[in-house]
Write a structure and sequence with these properties.
The radius of gyration is 40 Å and the shape is elongated. The chain starts with a helix and ends in a 5-residue tail after the last helix. Among the domains are: 122 residues, Serine Threonine Protein Phosphatase 5, Tetratricopeptide repeat, CATH 1.25.40; 95 residues, Serine Threonine Protein Phosphatase 5, Tetratricopeptide repeat. The longest helix has 26 residues. It has 574 residues and is mostly helical. Helix 1 crosses helix 6, helix 2 packs antiparallel against helix 3 and helix 31 packs antiparallel against helix 32. It is 79% helix and 0% strand. It has 32 helices and no strands.
């Protein structure tokens, strides 16, 4: 209400100032000094109102203080001064000017309302009540200020007086829903439930076809522990409006507590399957079912209900999101991802939904989907580095190295405050730049990743392996690969990397030892590892065994580009 009061106060301030000037003109001719003073006051007030409307309150303050020096008893200037000070959070000083304005023009309800509001903020409730009572007494046109009076009484915990104030307003304005609800809250606080029920009946009598008033009556009857009467009211509400979802929900709960679980389930089913029912109420019911679900059967029932909401509200994003959330909890990731995608089609502006989609694409190892969805995500959220990272990762796996580099570089620029993500981005940039044969950039990216996480096994393994392929910084490569093997002594891939570094350094016996550990590690062995094993055997002079291993590697796949030539010639061609 105070915004309305202040807006009207601007107009009243002008009227007061104009009346002041006009009165002086009508009672006696203005002297030149009086005329100059009036023009100066009008100019200062006009400037003050202009600055105030521009929210330049310090400049408005200056104009008003000058006006009050000319005429300290100008009510409009005192009112505006108080209003300006309130905007600057100077409550106690504002009270002085508001009180002065009200003393000068006590018949001005806007001045009174301003002072009443200030007293309320100062917790001077008795004074605020005096002001609002005076305003209400002035005219029946001021009846709405009785609501302010009642609010003050509530703050002062004078609930009976508040009820009386509401009754006085009601006699003038008639039955008003919010006013009635306020009275009901007080009656409930005072433990006068029957009086609250009387207020509910007033609303029903005033609007007998409004089903929600009947539901409100039922809710109060439940509070009064009168479930049979509440049940009758709910049935009445559903006759008035079969789409009244809250009535169905409450009725189902009463039936359940009465032991009629079949009727309760039927009532819930009707609510969930009603396309005209309120989706918020259905969501509320779903939350209740989720909270109470203890068995797998209960949890499946919740999922079924969520599916019913999706079916009856196919254009509501929330329905799909809740359904998807439940599918995730049920570890049905593919269905959950599809439900999130449908939600995103309805509303693509939800960051969390895209995050869930990309997470599930990754969990499902569906790289094509990750590529498509990450492109859609960055289109909607171009400033989110995590989405660029997902896109870069997908392109890296698909060996689209240039696109991967562009996306990961963008991700790196956008996530400087997230050290964990930065480490992951640098790690992948190392792989990407290697794929582009940009070896200096690759090494730099790996080094940056290791600064953030010195024991990142993925980075240490790849970095050392690629150095060995280039036959560069072999001591550094050996040091890194050895540290990874020390932490992962049964990982075939890491053992192979260390062996290959030793091979490049011509330590064939050492390489043989670690390749045999890799092959006998019990973990999955790739064709590359078997091919390396053959290479080492060849260098140690066991050429027949080497050829046997190369053929075996060929049948396994994942081989080097020279595998066919090795098999055909029985030797390694450098």
């Amino acid at each position: 209400m105070m915004n309305k009061i202040f807006t009207l106060g601007l107009l009243m301030g002008w009227l007061t100032l104009t009346t002041f000037a006009q009165k002086n003109k009508n009672t006696a001719p203005e002297t030149d000094q009086q005329k100059a003073q009036r023009f100066q006051l009008e100019s200062l007030m006009a400037d003050a109102l202009k600055y105030s409307s521009m929210e330049e309150f310090s400049r408005a303050d200056s104009m008003l203080r000058q006006a009050l020096k000319i005429n300290p008893n100008l009510a409009a200037a005192n009112y505006e001064m108080a209003r300006t000070l309130l905007k600057r959070d100077r409550l106690d000083e504002a009270a002085i000017y508001a009180q002065k304005a009200y003393e000068i023009s006590p018949e001005n309800k806007y001045y009174g309302a301003q002072l009443g509001d200030i007293y309320t903020q100062q917790r001077k409730y008795a004074k605020a009540a005096d002001i609002y009572r005076a305003i209400v007494k002035q005219s029946t046109d001021n009846a709405e200020y009785g609501l302010e009076l009642a609010a003050v009484y509530i703050l002062d915990e004078k609930y009976e007086e508040a009820l009386k104030a509401y009754d006085d307003v009601e006699r003038v304005l008639g039955i008003e829903e919010e006013l009635t609800h306020q009275k009901q809250r007080i009656y409930i606080k005072l433990d006068k439930i029957n009086k609250a029920l009387e207020e509910a009946q007033k609303l029903i009598n005033a609007e007998p076809t409004e089903s929600r008033y009947v539901v409100e009556m039922a809710r109060l009857l439940m509070l009064a522990k009168r479930p049979d009467e509440a049940k009758q009211q709910l049935e009445k509400a559903l006759k008035i409006n079969p789409d009244e979802s809250e009535a169905s929900l409450m009725l189902a709960e009463i039936l359940r507590k009465n032991g009629d679980s079949q009727a309760a389930s039927q009532q819930m089913g009707q609510m969930f399957n009603n396309p005209n029912g309120d989706i918020d109420t259905k969501m509320q019911a779903l939350v209740g079912l989720m909270r109470e679900a203890k068995s797998d059967a209960d949890r499946q029932d919740v999922l079924n209900r969520a599916a019913e909401i999706v079916k009856t509200h196919p254009k509501d994003m929330r329905a799909y999101v809740v359904y998807a959330d439940l599918l995730v909890k049920a570890n049905r990731k593919s269905e959950a991802r599809d439900a999130y995608v449908k939600a995103a089609r309805i509303n693509s502006s939800m960051y969390e939904i895209w995050g869930a989609i990309l997470q599930l694409d990754g969990d499902l190892n569906q790289i094509d989907s990750l590529l498509v969805h990450s492109e859609m995500a960055v289109e909607n959220f171009p400033n989110q580095g995590a989405f660029w990272y997902s896109n870069g990762s997908a392109n890296l796996i698909k060996r689209n190295f240039q696109k991967a580099a562009e996306s990961l570089e963008e991700a790196q620029k956008l996530t400087t405050d997230n050290k964990e993500l930065q480490g992951a981005i640098f790690a992948q940039l190392g792989d990407v730049y290697h794929g582009l044969a940009q070896h200096a950039q690759s090494d730099e990216a790996y080094e940056n990743a290791l600064k953030l996480e010195p024991n990142n096994d993925h980075v240490l393994n790849n970095y050392s392996y690629y150095l060995s392929l280039r036959k560069e910084k072999l001591d550094r490569a050996k040091e890194m690969a050895a540290s990874v093997v020390a932490r992962n002594p049964t990982n075939a891939t890491f053992l192979d990397t260390y062996a290959w570094v030793l091979y490049v350094m011509k330590d064939y016996r050492g390489a043989l030892e670690y390749l045999e550990k890799a092959i006998n590690s019990g973990s999955k062995v790739s064709g590359t590892i078997v091919e390396h094993y053959g290479d080492v055997l060849y260098q140690l002079g066991e050429k027949e065994k080497a050829l046997e291993q190369w053929k075996k590697a060929k049948s396994m796949g994942e081989n080097g580009p020279q595998i066919d030539k090795k098999i055909a010639t029985g030797q390694i061609v450098e």
